[in-house]
Each structure stands twice: as structure tokens, then as C-alpha cells.
Amino acid sequence: MNKLSFLRWQFIASIIIAYVIIIFSFWYFLASQSRYSDTVNNYMALSQEKFNAIQDWEVNIQKFSKYKNLEKNTDPLVEDQLRNAIQKSLLVLDTPNELIDRKLDATQDARAYSQELFALNNINASNIQADMLLKIADQQARIVETSNKLTNEIIEFRKEKIKKRNDELTTSRYITIILGLFSLIVVLFVVVQTMRILAHLRKTGNKERELNQNLLKTAEQLEDVNWVLQNSSKIHNQINGLPSEKAIAQTALNGMSEVLDFFAAAFYVRKTDSYEFILKSSIGLHNKETIQNFILDEGILGAVAANKKHQIIPVQDISKTNIQTGTIKNMDADAILFPIVYEDYCIGIIEIIGSFPKNRVESILNYLTRTSRSIGSALQSRQNHALVEELLAETQRQTEELEAQQEELRITNEELVYKTNLLEASEEELRVQQEELSQANKELNVKAAELERRNLELNEAHNIVEQKIVEVELASKYKSEFMANMSHELRTPLNSILILAKLLQDNKLENLNTEQVKYASVIHNAGSDLLQLINELLDLAKIESGKVEMQKDLIRIQDFSSNMESLFKELAKEKSINFQIDIEQAPKQFVTDEYRLEQVLKNFLSNAFKFTEKSGSITLKIFQQSGNVHFAVKDSGIGISPEKQSLIFEAFRQEDGSTSRKYGGTGLGLSISREISSLLNGRITLESEIGQGSTFSLIIPYIPEINKEEMPAPTKEASKESTSQETKATAKQENIRQGSEDAKMELPKNRQTKSILIIEDDINFADILKSFSEEYGFDTLNAYDGVAGIQMAKQKQPDAIILDVMLPLADGWEVLKTLKNDKTTKHIPIHMMSAANFDKKDFLESGAIGFMPKPVNEESIALAFETIHLNINKELKKILLIEDQEFQSDLIKKAFAEQNINVIQAFTIESGMKKLEEEENLDCIILDVKLPDGSGLEMLDRIKSNPKYEKLPVIINTAYDLSAEQTEKILRHTQSMVLKSSKSNNRLIDEVNLFLNKLSTPAYNPIKNPEKLVSSESYGTSVLENKTVLIADDDMRNVFALTSSLQQYKMKIEIANNGLEAVQAVENPDKQIDIVLMDIMMPEMDGYEAIQEIRKNKKHNNLPIIAVTAKAMKGDREKSIELGANDYVSKPIDLDRLVSLMQVWLS
Amino acid sequence: MAELRNSYDISFPEIEELIFLLKNVSDFDLSGYTRSSLKRRIQRIMNLEALDFVDLKNAVINIPGFQQFFIQEVTVNVTEMFRDPGFFNRLASEILPYLQTFPRIKIWSAGCSTGEEVYSLAILLKENNLYDRSFIYGTDINSKVLDIAKKGIYPLKKFKEYSDNFNAYNSKESLSNYYTARYDAAIINHDLRKNILFSTHNLASDQVFNEFQLITCRNVLIYFDLKLQEKVINLFYESLALFGFLCLGTKETILRHPVMENFKVVDKEFNIYQKIK
Fold first, then answer.
1. Bridge-partner residues for A300, per DSSP?
2. Between 20 and 30 A from A300 (CA), which of A329, A852, B203, B265?
3. Judged by CB atoms within 8 Å, which residues 705-764 of A form the interface with B?
4. Where does the Response regulatory domain start and stop, copy by copy (chain A) (predicted)?
5. d(CA A1142, CA A373)
């Protein structure tokens, strides 16, 4: 080292020396050079100065010469000036300098010449030119010669001087060369030194290189390892936690491709738990031809997998492989088949192909080994994971499945439970029903057995009875036939006989003598007797067969007795019998069937007259005794022996078979009388002694007035029938016909009492009507004009009138008005008829009972007679119907006619009010709400304001929905209301029947002991007087009952229909409620709520509230008290308890 | 699966004892109920609650609320909307035209259970434009079922059956016009619920509480013995307005009872009667 530094020092020093010498020699050379050139330049300049001076001198001298020669008059000044200039130039030439260190020789010449010139003064100004010019040229030549001399001299000088200087320069050049040589030597030394250093350096450099080479090698190795590690860890990181084998394979290959420059690669992964490897990923492979899968031990791949050792297969011809390039066919490449082994288990194979440098193969293999480990573990864990996942998914699926099944089960279970409940319940129902049924069955069986037995017996009896019935029927038929035939056959000739006898008896021609007249009257009397007998027979037969209907007539005793008296006055006079009627103890009036009563009494009396001798006495005593009316006919006749007394009431029996011959008579009278008496609910008694006379008494129950409760039996039947027939709404026509037939059957007994006046100008039609009216059981009177009709009506007082409108003298309208205005005829029902088209309403308004349009038919006639019948029969119920719609009105009328109820129609309020006054004994009013001349509700108020009609039931019949207030208002007057609808007529009839039958003893009385009411008035209840009670109840029955009861205690009543109204009433300061009766179950707001609501207002804290409840549960009752009621009463209300409770709370 | 021998049994004398007990400790009087039905129902409760007879008696006396529960479980609550569509047909065609002649129509559904019949009647009235002047009282002994009835909310799945019934009664309209379905339930429309009052009423002990034009009491009398039946029918008779109607279940009849003479049979098949006296 020392050597190297020494050398270096030497080297550096010699370099410096060499440099110094070179620089010095340079500088020296350059300096001498510049000195030379400076000097030369100086010489040049100096010589130039001399030249200039020479020139000046030449110029000036020439001027001067010219001036002196040419100018005639020389100006001394200019001459001077030129002289001075010449002098000056000569001076300059004389002045030595570096170059010319001595006076020039030529100067002397110049000077001399100059002086010469000076000395020539104006030589000749007037000289001729040529001389002068010659002189000048001469002078000029001399001047130039002198100047040339001068110039040459200077140049000579300069040459000399420069030569000197050149020598000096050459010397310095030599010196410089010597210096240069010296520096060369120094440089040489430097070179030598350098060589020595270099040699030294080369020696140490070789050693270093060797060392470096070693270092490089190890670094490379390190790098390789690093590379392997880095890349493999990169892949390890990348593939960690990838979700699928494919992703692992793909990522691994991608990672490798970044690291290894392969051409193509394939990655096969072993299927879990199998020998099959499946291509999971590939790069650069021709997909179609790539082996997708292989089995362990099959092919090279299989072998590698089985051996778990990698294999490197060199490839020469790349076209034989499964990769393609566009350009290359032949290339060296290596295919590396590398098994991925995890825990000694080949889990996959990576195959790569590429042109790998030989030295890289090792590290690639290393890389692959390392990478394969992480790939292997990743794959394994992936596969394990997949397995776990699969298992998990499976478990999840199973869980879900389970859940679903559970859900289904739950639903099914619920359904099952529900169905079970349902089943249980319905089963229960069924069972109970079954039990009930079987119980009923058992009972039925027993009863059936019993019934069967009885049935048998009955059947037997029935058979016998049937047989008998057949016999009886046959007999009865024969009898009826016989009767009919006989009566007809007998009556026909009798009619002639009687009429003729009567004519004879009247002896209008006066051509008979008294004897003959007497015969005629005998014939007439006998015929009349015969006719009576026939009639009586028929009568008896009818009574016996129960076909007779009893009438209810109001009998005034005065009229009755005078009537009876007049009947027998003549006879008594004739037989001079003292006949008296004693009515002192008789009731003024009573009700019975007048015709039948008369029949019986006539029978009694005629018998009495028959069996009483002349100047005997007969008394009819009518008296009332213990609720009965007695009619006693006492005679002083022959009397009847006790043995015979029972016999005489049998048909065709008299006291003695022989009597008939003596006294005459049919022997039917008493039989009929006895039958009648029983029909009249009475009886006949007989007291008699032989020779003492006898007393026949008819005893019938005393009925002071026509009482609806005791309806005649047939009407009752009819009404019963009507209710049971209700459902037969159809076939009305049939019913009408049936009804009229019934009427036909029933009516004939009226034949002799009811009369009808037919006022009709058409005689033929009058005859037809007459025959019809007779068929319907009327005696017929005919009038053929209006005036006669009026007269006849007044005289004969018929029971009914059929009136035609078109009449001579006075038309039907006049007749109708006259009759209706006459007191004596006002009551007679008039049925109108006409062929003209009249509004039926008008007739009805004017007081007619009906209208029959012509031409008539059997049906309309039947209808007319039915109407007449309904109107003359005072027993029938009468309804006033106020309804503006004729059709509806007729419909209702028809429906009621079926029920034997007489409907009087009115169409306006006014006519309704009029009829209400005219008609007596109306049973009910049916009122429409909407009427042409006002509201039915107003009319209701008008009717009800008359105390006479206060208790008359009114039924509101309307098609309109009424408001709650209206309904309430109506309900205050009447208890029922009807709305129009298809079934409304049924309801109407129901309601009317209900009123008519007066059966409406309420099934449920909301008050337990109403009878106590009266007695309770006696003790002090003044506490209640003038107190206001609020009745809150939805049940109108309760409200009515409580209202009427509490009004007797002089309480003021307020009504609320629900809880809300109750609260409002309490809150209303005008009402001043003192106590509240609160029902619990009410609409809108129930009682509990209402009580709470009332109690919310502190003002009402002391208002007594009594809860009214239908509930028997203690809890329910106590709840009301908890909520604020002061006390409670149960339904039905014990009035005693309620009154005392109210007294307690109000005192 | 519970073992079968774990079922509890009750004898008829024990039932009598229980009835007597219940009558004394509470207001419930079951003495008018048919014994065989009671036996089954009580046995069911015993099995449901795993009680023997002594436990049962103890529960009746000592467990608060058990009496109510007992009554709830003893009574059978089966009802559905438009049960027996024929009955409703008959009501609509025969009874409503008559009912509409009354200015106000008050109806009592006795033993209405969860109220389906009450709402069916309301729908019937609504269809005939009578609902606004009608008022329906629904009563039952069981206050729990009345709570359901008051709400008017029923499981939607039931409505399938109800719709079938309704269609059998009236094929023109749809039952869905009368309820609103949401989630898995359906509520009866509000305007159908306004003229209805649900209240407890014990047919065996309670009294007349109003006057009605129509009383329906279907499949209730079958649980009562003859004596109680008569009492209840009398109660109905007293609660009916004149010419009002009484409708009983198809297996129930009043023909055996003396009060029958005050009624007219309107429909034999569905046991509809009219009060005529």
C-alpha cells in the first residue's frame, strides 16, 4: 500500500512539475512573441508618423510653390501659414524617436530646398505661364525627389530595427524549445509512474473480482429463495379463504402465471373422497381438447397423482401439445406435472407448460412445492369447508323442513282443535237432540201404542158410527128431500089457493054472499095454517139440524108488549078472554133474538088461547129475576096432567092424542119453542094442574145491551175460522163465493123478518132482483119510481134498500139524500146501482153502503147482498175505514167481509168524521195517514179529543215511515199501528180482530200487582205528589204500565227511550227530574252507562236513581249500585215495593 | 299421548252435588240443564284441566274466576253466520213482510253466543231496508263470548263457510259487502253494528226485559230439561209483542208445552211460531 501511495505521490508531483514547466515555457514564449509584435507595431506607427510628415511637407511645399508661382499678389498671411506648415513638418521630420535616433540626411536637403523656395519671392507674377509651369514642374520634381529620399531613409531605418527585433525573437524560441524538452522528460516520468500504479491496481482488482463473484452467487441464491417465498406467500394469501375450489384453482393459476412465464396451465382437483380429478381451471388451453377429468392411476396425470411426484416432460414440437400459437410450431418447452399433496394425499394436480430456463427449473419446482402446499391445504380446507357447508345446508334444510312441518302440524292441530271443538259442540248438540228425540220417541211409542189401541176402539166405534151416520144421513137426506119436495109441492098449490082465497075473501066484485066470503076466509085460514105448518116443519127441521143462527136484537119492552098485545087483541076479544100483559117488573130493554122470542111467545099464547074456554083469562107476565128474564104465559085452561107434561114437548104430541081433534094445532109449536129456548140459552118450564090451567114460562138470560163479549156462536166460529184461514191468502174469490154460499145457507131464516125495498124502474130487472133478494132471504118490496120509493121506505121501513140511480120523478141521488136526511129512514142501509158510470166514492161519501155497476152478474149481486147483509146485521162488527185510495180501501173491505166484519168506507177526513157521528157502535177505526184534506194524525187528535171516542181503537195504516216522535205520539192514543205491505192486510185483520174480540188481556203484565193500586191510594203517598219521575225504558209496555200507575199518585212523568235520552232529560234544567227509574238494557246507551254519565255531573249526586233490571243475578244488580244507582227493583215490577222505594228516596 | 286411564269420570249424583254447590256459591243455576249433556261437558272440563271431582269442587269454591270459566266451558257455543240458510230464506220471505208493519222492530237473539246470528239478522234486515228501524238484542249467559260478539271480529277462515251459507241464502250479493278483511281476520261493518246491544242474560233465572217482535233462540232449548224449557218458552211468550214471532232450532218445538195454544205454527220445518193470544 505504501508503495501505491508513494507511487501516487510521485505521480502527482511529476504531473505538477510537468505542468509548471509547460505553463512557464508557454508564458515565456508568448511574452516574447507579444513584445516582438508590440515593438514592430510601434515601429510601424513611428514610421507612419514620419511618412505623414513627409507627405504634409510635400503637399505644403507644392502648395507653396504653386502659390508663389501662380499668384500675382501673394498674401503674406497665407504665405506665412504655408511656411509655418512646412516648417512644422520639417520639425517633425527632424525630431528623433525610437526608430530614428538621428537626424535624417534627406532632411537637410528638404530644408535646404525649402529655404530656397522661400527665398524666391514673387518671382514673377506676370511671367508667362509656360515659364512658370516649367518652373513649377521643376520645383515639383525636386519636391518629389526630396520626399522619396526621405521615405527611403525611414524605411531603411525601419528595416534595420525590425531585423534586430527578429533576432531577439529567435533567441526566445530556442529557450522555449529547451523548456519544452524538459517538460517532456517530466511527463515521461509521470507515465512511468502511472504504469507502475496501474500494475499494482490490476493485481488487487483481480482478487476483488473473485470475491465479488462469490458474493453475487450467494445473493442470487438468496433472491431465488425470496422469490419463491414471496410468490408462494402471495398465492397463499390470495387463495386463503376463497369460497370455492374453482376460485382457488383460478386464483392459484393466475398467481402462478404472474410469477412463472408459462404458456398454459391446467389445474385438476380431486373430487372429495373419490379417485376422480376434475379440471377446475386452465389458462391458455384449448378448451375443447383439454382433458376434463381423469381417474387416479390413469395416464400420466393419473400416474403423477398416484406417485405424488412431479414430472417434467420436455416438449419439442409444440404443435403436439394442447396449446396453440399463431406463429410457432417448433419450440422447446417443458411440461411440468405437479401433484398437490396434502398430508400425503394427492388432492390435485397442476400442469404447466412453458419454456423455462434450466437454471429456473429448480426454483420453479421449489415454488411449486411450496405453493402446492398452501394450495393443498387451501383445497383441503375448502373441501372440508364445502363438506361442512353442505352438511350445514343440509341441516338448515332439514331444520326448515322441520319448521315447516311443525307449522303445518300446528295449523292442522289448530284446525283439529277447532274442528274437535266444533265436533264436540255439534256432537253435543246432536247427542242432546238425539236424547231428546229418543226420549220423545219413547214417549211417542208409548203414546202410539195407546193411540193404536184407542184407534182400534175408535175405528170400531167409528165403523159403527159411520154405518149409523150413513143410515142417518140417508134418512136425513130422505127427510130433507121429502121436506123440500113436500114444501115445494105443497106451497105451489097453496100459493094459488091462498091468493085466490084472499081475492075471494076480499070480494071486490061483491058478488059473493057473506056465507061464501066466510068460506073463502076459511079456505084462506086453513091454507094459511097449512102453510104455517109447513113452515114450522121446515123450521123445526132446521133448528134440529142446528142450522139456525140467533140474532141479537135490542128489545124495548114497551114496544114488544104493545106488539104482542096487538097480535092477540082481536082473538081475545073474539073469545072474550081477559088477556093482559104485565110488564111492571120487566127490564126496560134487553137483548135476545126478537123473532124467535116472538115465535115462542106466540106459540105459548096461541096455545093458551086455544085451550082456554071463553071468558077465561090469559096473562103474559114479563119479569126479571136473578139475572134472567122470565116470560110467563098463564092461562085458566084445562091444564095438563103431570104425566103428560113431559110428552107435550115432543113433536106431534099433544096432551092427548084426541086433543088435536078438539083444539086443532099442529103439535109442533112446543117442540119448536123448546128448541128455540135452548138456542137462546134459556129454558121452558111448565106448571100445570088439571083444571087449574097451566103456566108456560120461557126463561132466558138477561142481557141488558148488545155485548160483544157474548158473540153469537156462529160468529165466533167464523172468527176462529178466519184466524186459521189467514195463511190462505190466495183464492180469495173462492172464499167470497164460499162466504156468499154460507150466507145463502144461513140467511133464509130471515125470510120473514128482513125486508128489502127495490127501487128500480126496469120491471124485468126488478123482478130478477126480487127473486135474488128472496133467495138471499129478504122480503122484497118494489117501487118503480123515486117518489114511490121514498114513500114506501118511510111507510114500510125496510131493512135495506137497493136503489137505482136513473129513476123517473126523482132520481137515485135525490132519493138517497132525502132518505139520509130523514130521521126515520136515516139508518136504513142503501145500496146503489146504476148502468151509468159513477164514481163509487161519491155514493159512499153520501151515505150509501155500496155501489153495484150494471150490467150485473151473479157475483156482483152476491157482493151487494153480502154488503147489505153486513149492514143490516147489527150483531156484526163495524169498522170505519178512512183511506183515500179506493183500490186499497176495497181490498181491505173485501178482506174484512170474509171475516164477517162490516167495513164502512170513507175517503176524506171530513166524511170520516161525519160517518163517525152517523154510525153507532163503531168498533174500530182504520186510518190512513195521508188523506186528501189533511193528515190522519190530525184526525187522530180530533177523534181522540172527543171523550166519546177516547176508548175507540184507532189503527193507523200507512205506507210511510213515521218519525220516532210521530210514532210515539200515535202510541199515546192507540196501541197499535200498521204499515202497508204485501202482508199488511193480514196484520190489519189481526189487529182488528184483537180489538173486536177484546181478548187483549195482556199476556205479560209488567207490573206484578196492579190490583193493589187502588188500595194504596188510601195511605199517605203525598210524598210522591207533584214529583217528576223520569222513566227510562225501551219497553213500551213497561212505560205504559208505570205511567198509568204512577199518574194515580199524581206524579209527573217524563219518558226516555234510551240511556242517552235519559241523560239529556236529567241535564235539562226545564224538566226538574226528582227521581229516575232506569232500565238497564236499552239501546244507544245502556242503563249502566247512563247512570255513570248522570253521576259524572256533581249536581246530580243526590238525584235518586232506581235501576230496573230483568236480571236475577246478584252480581248484575249490585253492579248497578256500584255504578251509582241508589237502589234497584226487578222486573216484573212489584209496584208496592217501587212506591215505597220511591217514597224513601223522595222524602 | 296421555294415558287413557287418566280420564276423569263423574257420576250423576256428583253432578247433582256440583249443581247444588254452584247454586249456593254463585248465581249460576244449572239445575235445569239436561244431565247427560252436563255430564259430558263437565267431564270434558275435568279432563281439560286434569281435575278430579274433589279438585273441581275446590276450584268452584276457591279459585276466583273459575265459576265463570266453568260456565263458559259447560255451555256449548256453536254458531255461524246464516246457519241453516233455509231458515233465513223463510225469515226473509214469510216473516219480514209481516215484521215491517211494526213501526219499530225489536229482536232478541237469546243465546247468541259469539254473535254471528245477530249479525246475520242485521244483514237480513239491512237487505230489506228495515235495519234502521230495528234494534237487536243479543244475549248469552257467557260474558266471554259476548266480548267476541261485541267486537264483531272473526277469523277470516271462518268466513269461507259463512259465505257458502250466505250464498245458499242469497246468491245475488256477496257477504263481503258486509265485512272488512285485513290480515287474517274480518270485522263486521260498523253500520251493521250500531243497532245492536249485547248483554248477558241468563235464560234460566232472568226476567223479561223488553217487548219484542221477533225472538230467535235456536239450539239452546235442547240443553234444558222440560221444566226449564217451559219456563224459558213462557219467558219468550211474555217478551213477545202480540203477533210477534218466535224462532226455535230445527229440533226444538213448543208443541209439547201448554203455552202452545197461544201460538200459531208459521213454519213447521224451521219451527217458527207466531203469538196470537
1. none
2. A329
3. 723
4. 755-869, 878-995, 1028-1146
5. 107
Same fold, A731-873 and A1012-1146: yes
Q: How far apart are CA A362 and CA A343, in angstroms?
A: 23
Express the helix, strand and coil content of chain B in percent, nearest 5 each. Answer: 50, 20, 30
B77 with A425: Cβ contact below 8 A: yes
pLDDT digits (tens, 9 = 90+) for A681-734: 888 888 888 777 888 888 888 887 765 444 333 333 333 333 333 333 333 334
Burial (Cβ within 10 Å: 0-12, 13-18, ≥19) of residue A657: exposed
Q: Which CATH class is domain B85-275?
A: alpha beta
Residue B136 is predicted with a pLDDT of: 93
Q: Which of A858, A1115, A580, A636 is nearest to B201 (CA)?
A: A1115
Cross-chain residue pair A1034–B106, CB shorter than 8 Å: yes
Q: What is the pTM of this model?
A: 0.44
The reply to whether A979 touches chain B by the CB within 8 Å rule is yes
CATH 3.40.1130.10 is held by the domain A1012-1146: no
- Listed by start position, the domains of chain A span 2-205, 240-356, 548-701, 731-873, 877-1000, 1012-1146
Supply the CATH classification number for the domain A548-701: 3.30.565.10
Average pLDDT over residues A467-473: 82
Chain B residues within an 8 Å CB radius of A961: 133
Q: State whether B243 and A977 contact (CB < 8 Å).
A: no
Chain A contacts in chain B segment 103-132 (CB below 8 A): 103-104, 106
Can you tell me which residue has the cell 511574452? Answer: A31
Annotated domain spans of chain B: 4-74, 85-275
Summarised one tens digit per residue, pLDDT across range A878-929 is 788 888 777 778 777 877 777 777 788 888 888 888 888 777 777 788 888 7
- Stretches where chain B sits below pLDDT 70 are 1-7, 171
- What span, in angstroms and rounded, lies between the C-alpha atoms of A259 and A964? 102
Cβ-contact A649, A683 below 8 angstroms: no
DSSP H helices, B170-206, are 190-193
Cell numbers standing for residue A455: 184407534
Look at the domain A240-356 and name its fold: Beta-Lactamase (3.30.450)
- Interchain CB distance below 8 Å, A1111 and B78: no
Q: Which residues of B touch A971 (CB under 8 A)?
A: 103
Which residue on chain A is closest to B27 by alpha carbon? Answer: A1113
* Interface contact flag, A962 B219, Cβ < 8 Å: no
For chain A positions 1063-1102, those within 8 Å of chain B (CB to CB) are: 1079-1083, 1086
pLDDT digits (tens, 9 = 90+) for A409-426: 766 676 677 777 777 777
Q: Count Cα neighbours of A754 within 13 Å in the Cβ-side half-sphere.
A: 25
For A731-873, CATH number out of 3.40.50.150, 3.40.366.10, 3.10.20.120, 3.40.50.2300 equals 3.40.50.2300
Partner B, chain A 396-455, Cβ-Cβ below 8 Å = 422, 424-426, 428-429, 431-433, 435-437, 440
Hey, how many other C-beta atoms are within 10 angstroms of the C-beta on B140? 26
Give the span between the Cα atoms of B264 and B242, in whole angstroms.
12
Cα–Cα distance for residue pair B204/B207, rounded to 1 Å: 9
In tens, the pLDDT along A594-613 reads 878 888 888 888 888 877 88
**Strand A830-834 to A877-882 pairing:** unpaired
| ipTM at complex level | 0.74
Strand A628-635, strand A617-625: pairing: antiparallel
Q: What is the reported pLDDT for A727?
A: 36
Domain A877-1000 belongs to what architecture? 3-Layer(aba) Sandwich (3.40)
Q: Cis bond leading into A714, ω under 30°?
A: no
Residue A488: the pLDDT is: 57
What is the four-CA torsion angle of A175, A180, A182, A188, rounded to 10 degrees? -170
